[in-house]
Amino acid sequence: MTISDIKNRIPGYAKDLKLNLSSVLTPEGAPGLSATQIKATALASAIAARNTSFARELETAFTGDVDDKSIEAAKAAAAIMGMNNVYYRFLHLAQDGDYANMPARLRMNVIGSPGVDKVDFELYSLAVSAVNGCGLCITAHARELAKAEVSKESIQSAVRIASVVNAVAAVLEYEQSDDQARKAA
After folding, report:
1. Which amino acids are annotated catalytic?
2. Measured between alpha carbons, how far is 138 from 156 in angstroms, rounded to an integer?
3. DSSP string, 118-179
4. pLDDT score for 26
5. DSSP element (H, E) containing 32
6. pLDDT, position 1
7. How much is the mean pLDDT over the chain?
8. Which of 9, 132, 173, 175 has its CA 20 to 30 A from that of 101?
9. Using 50, 70 and 90 to split pLDDT, how confident is the model at 177?
10. How far, in Å, are 16, 57, 61, 155 from residue 46 at the CA level?
11. Of all residues in the chain, what percent carry a pLDDT higher than 90?
12. CA 134 to CA 92: how far, in whole Å?
């Protein structure tokens, strides 16, 4: 499976997504990010978008281009943020300071030791948080990236990747379910 194979499955009504996917997965289309950061951010975002087939296709397409540690870190970011985004979104939406003052009592060891550069893991975590819509986590990860002197353009690139990958995941999921419905009929 290649990126071209994936793009060829995107239907005509989502042509903009096909064009955007072509763009955001390149260093020119994702200014400030390395090729590894781009691809690992895309994989983490695809996992967060909950389209298993698409996420596995991206992982296969990136094999050989992205080292195993970065692939594992992308998966770890999707996993830990899947938990954290729900918890911290609750804290935000509940609007009750008592909850915010209570210990989370959730293990988050991977954040302290992600196996890759901390900036890379923060980028992946930011992208997943954007897909999952957790404002507190988005703010926290953007702040950490700014402290590490990551440019706003780089941060925007990570979120642009997340937005396109999320939309492509939804369209491919819809098309796959439509194909299955036709076969069943």
Report:
1. 134, 137
2. 12
3. HHHHHHHHHHHHHHHT-HHHHHHHHHHHHHTT--HHHHHHHHHHHHHHHHHHHHHHHHHHHH
4. 97
5. none
6. 83
7. 95
8. 132
9. confident
10. 18, 10, 13, 18
11. 94
12. 9
